[in-house]
Amino acid sequence: MTTANAPGKIILIGEHAVVYGRPAIAAPVWQCVATAVVASAPPGSGVTISAMDIHRRFSLDEVGEDEPLAVVVRATLAHLGVQHPPDLQIELHSDIPIAGGLGSGAALSTALVRALFAHFGQVVEPEVVSAIVYESERLYHGAPSGIDNTVVAFGQPIWFIKGKAAEPLRPAAPLTLVIADSGVPSPTKETVGAVRRLWERETERCEVLFDEIAVLAQRARLAIEQGDRQTLGRLFDADQTLLEALGVSSETLDRLILAARRAGALGAKLSGGGRGGNIIALVEPERVDAVSTALKASGARRIIVTQIERRSPPSLPSRRPEARELR
Ligand code: MEV
Prior knowledge:
Layout: E1 2-13, E2 24-40, E3 47-51, E4 56-59, H1 68-80, E5 88-94, H2 104-119, H3 126-141, H4 147-154, E6 158-160, E7 167-168, E8 175-181, H5 188-201, H6 203-226, H7 229-245, H8 251-262, E9 267-271, E10 278-283, H9 288-297, E11 302-308, E12 324-326
Parallel strand pairs: 3-5
Antiparallel strand pairs: 1-2, 2-5, 2-6, 3-4, 6-7, 8-10, 8-11, 9-10, 11-12
(R)-mevalonate is lined by residues 11, 15-16, 18-19, 101, 141, 144-145, 147-148, 188, 192, 272-273.
């Protein structure tokens, strides 16, 4: 039996614009993880996959190319050179909010690829994991930039431009973030589609917004590399204004963002596809409790506190011991 984990993720800056070739910054969130367990199954049972958190249970033979997890299994077996797979039972679990902008789909697929490689006794490079997972992301997201599969597969903060090799980002000082789940599911495919339709109607305006987001991303990179949290907070706020102009915020997200700012966050914004899902607030460590309490009082369903540091774990362990999770 082999087990592998993969983290959730947040986009610090640049979501949506990244689909149109602009840079973005993302980081893994080790406080919520997806886990895959692969075990040999009784003879003749074939390959069965069960992911009860997303209410899926199927046999590999039964499903087509529109089932993201089957796409991942087939692509991984092809990479492994396994033409006739042995009988396998694959179980997937995740405590990453689904359709919440935290990369639950990418994390499930990443854990699955890793566990399969481990089952067949092979080591796999993050680039390979990321490429396989991208195929399933296309089914979840429509026209994804590739940022989710990249950050989850590499498991460290990245500077990402579509079609280019991701660059690791090294914060000069740790960044403390409070992540708040609005409890409103919002599939990324839908928000990416909504922005696409807006872009088709108002190409020039959208391109200007994307350019402005790109400038914020450049400045955010500098702020992170210089450990300038005050500036980074202001850039979060500015990015949120541009995301609102793209139509991907919502009343619920706006309320949470305002609550975080009023409670002393350095800046706050939606993270991921938007319209629902999660917001992120950059805070000084001593404001974690105040901001978390304010977010809860404003309706957040779940709060995760994470730190983005210079070095993320090189391998993929289970939860980090210093992780704090307030439910
Ligand atoms: C989703 O985490 C980020 C989006 O920019 C979509 C993508 O980049 O594929 C909204």
